[in-house]
Request: fold
Amino acid sequence: VIDGALLAIDEDPEMHVLLVGPPEVAESALTSRNRAGALDVVAATQLIDMTEDPARAVRAKRDATVRVAARLVRDGTADAVVSVGSTGAALAAAVFTLGTVPGMSRAPLAVVIPAARGPVVLLDAGASVDCDADLLTQFALAGVTYAGVVLGIEHPRVGLLTVGAEPGKGDMVRKAAYDGIAAALDGVAAEFVGNVEGHDVPLGGRADVVVTDGFTGNVLLKAVEGTLAMVGEAVAADAADDERLSAAFQRAMAPLDPAAIGGAVLLGVAGVVVVGHGSSSPRAVASCIQLATRSVRDDLVPQTAARLAGFIAQRGTAAGQPARFER
Amino acid sequence: VIDGALLAIDEDPEMHVLLVGPPEVAESALTSRNRAGALDVVAATQLIDMTEDPARAVRAKRDATVRVAARLVRDGTADAVVSVGSTGAALAAAVFTLGTVPGMSRAPLAVVIPAARGPVVLLDAGASVDCDADLLTQFALAGVTYAGVVLGIEHPRVGLLTVGAEPGKGDMVRKAAYDGIAAALDGVAAEFVGNVEGHDVPLGGRADVVVTDGFTGNVLLKAVEGTLAMVGEAVAADAADDERLSAAFQRAMAPLDPAAIGGAVLLGVAGVVVVGHGSSSPRAVASCIQLATRSVRDDLVPQTAARLAGFIAQRGTAAGQPARFER
Reply:
């Protein structure tokens, strides 16, 4: 984390990074790198373990790093939180301390996959593992705002991730969500392209926004990672001495490299919160920090809130449509 | 399909393939290949479309190809069914015409991924998209029998696919299934290794059997396929002229090639039923036929039934354990 933060400020001197955690650990790590004083340190003494129940741990530990970091954003001291710890704890701290914006009852994690045939916003990448059709519809609208604000795609194509391209394919949640998403996107600057499949995420091209629950999104992303790792191991075993081969392989995989993906943004919370991979390299941590910076500079939170408010207003006036996305 | 069937009989002259479908289509395709009479043809005049509700279509269409094929197995004329049509229709026809074996209320699709660190039986790969904890427990036991019969792994490690390795990670279905699977595997020749993640399927090594619902399994497999296609496209664009590079990639990706995977077996039905990819090449169709042949020669159905009966008997005698897997 510290190497990543140093990389980020070296690449963008206008960026200011606060380290949140035990000061003695931070100071000694900075000193051992001859960078004492390069980063400000905010003390936080508690940590939340991967094995703890995140919501309970966040409530119980007022001085946990993610809660302290979220308070810095709430109080205006910081513009964004970056965490490579427990996703559940980051989600719980964000919702608990910052709250959600009107129109969102939960905060999905959005990642941008820079796929060869065009970038894909995948959400939820792992925040809400149990989703109903209404939540998936909220996620679809949040994804539309994100594609507009971050990728500049003002009329994104939205797909529902399921097991076949034909309408009617899917489990009960997907079948129920299909009509809800179609109705919610009617009149919004977006196109519902219907069902998309697992291969449409790494390949891109079919949809700019792919909507799914956090369970499926997480399994999908890890399957993509595992496949790349599998191919990488085989290439390394086969031709470790061939530089051209290694370079070509690096280029081929680059779009799906975690550092290129650069972390996930929690959409719909009232502050910028970026969650990175638990096993992030310094390069990947720096990418997460850069993603947070871009999100702040793009006015992600006010833009998301304003666009969602517009959708809610539109839905509120549609005959017989309850404005069910109000908080 | 016809090219795949011809490939299969050319490679294994002891194999006998019956083509089920419109005879005039089959005859003309065989004649145009100068192979008239090489394959026997069984007439079936109805087909089930990808857009139809499979269960309803199978009940309504007595002369649909999958129903005719399933009857050939039920009546002893054929030993196995191979279909590269609608998975749902193959499942419905199999359950409707052949029935399930005691202990199984549904038939999961099992695929063997020949991963670098060891083969992985993934089930369900797409048959039952809505699963509860009891079904996942049935699938775990079916996966144990399959690993024993087909891979010769008599004490397989079984993992539950979810969003994190730590116990307690997952959605409500996974949290409920965890204890059910642990209890069901207690006393059986298998080891429950707990939670596994998306990358453990393409990489292998953590579990010999990975249990999931058909929705997640289908999305995962297609994500793996899409990732390979993405890498393949990038390599082709980057170094189409480099034969060594192309060959190295072919070798690296071979374990996850659909032809290497060779289709999926419907476990727990009273007959061998293999389902292949809708966009199968002749090579992949031949692999499906070879998988069906191996399954018949391995006595998959009687072995599965006998092993499940053993599990049920064990559970029936365990104090306080209802034999809830009896049909």
Q: What stands out?
A: The longest strand of chain A covers residues 191-196. The mean pLDDT of chain A is 89.
